[in-house]
Write a structure and sequence with these properties.
By secondary structure, the protein is mostly helical. It has one domain. It is about 55% helix and about 0% strand.
Length: about 120
């Protein structure tokens, strides 16, 4: 999954059409933010699996940015961070199924981060 999404990110896709790609970008970027600024607190990202729709995931991403994306976050002004955040912000509202929430948990397991690639 990582390689497939990485190729789209490196090609500077204007938006993501696949819910799975979008969820991967959102979860992976949240985990990168937390890892960079507050190593050891990464499990907070798993709360994204409690979201019922993509709008809630977007709001949760905003909360992660507010809590962990300020001082101590070395990529705060990096163009790739802005790009990934824009991909997360422009996805349409969709309900999440139980399978989608399980997919969020799987995305969390990735050890490589799109932000640093």
């Amino acid at each position: 999954m990582y390689e497939e999404v990485l190729n789209k990110v490196q090609a500077q896709a204007e938006r993501l059409d696949s819910l799975e790609d979008w969820l991967f970008v959102a979860v992976n970027t949240m985990k990168a933010i937390v890892t960079n600024s507050a190593k050891g607190q990464e499990p907070v990202v798993l709360k994204a699996a409690d979201c019922k729709n993509t709008s809630e995931v977007q709001r949760f991403y905003d909360r992660i940015q507010g809590m962990y994306g300020r001082e101590g976050f070395s990529y705060r002004n990096h163009p790739k961070y802005y790009y990934l955040s824009s991909l997360i912000a422009i996805f349409p509202a969709k309900e999440l199924s139980d399978d989608d929430r399980e997919f969020i948990r799987k995305c969390y397991e990735a050890e490589e981060y799109l932000l640093y690639s």
